[in-house]
UniProtKB/TrEMBL annotation:
Protein name, entry field: Uncharacterized protein
Species this protein is from: Vescimonas fastidiosa
Amino acid sequence: MQSILIRDTTRAQREQIVRQGLAACGSSCEGCNGCDNLGGGRVDAFYQPYIDGEKELWELNAEYRRGLVR
């Protein structure tokens, strides 16, 4: 398995990683209320700090689990 850390990926690769991860259900995220989003906007926007190289995926997911993100 290839590393998904920011230092080991390009922006384009991180965009693809997020797209593939969110497509696990088989649908697009556009207008979706899945993943416990409950109308909270575009789910992929939550991962923008990872795509931009600001935060690792594990950091974002930990914040979500701790309820720091809505």
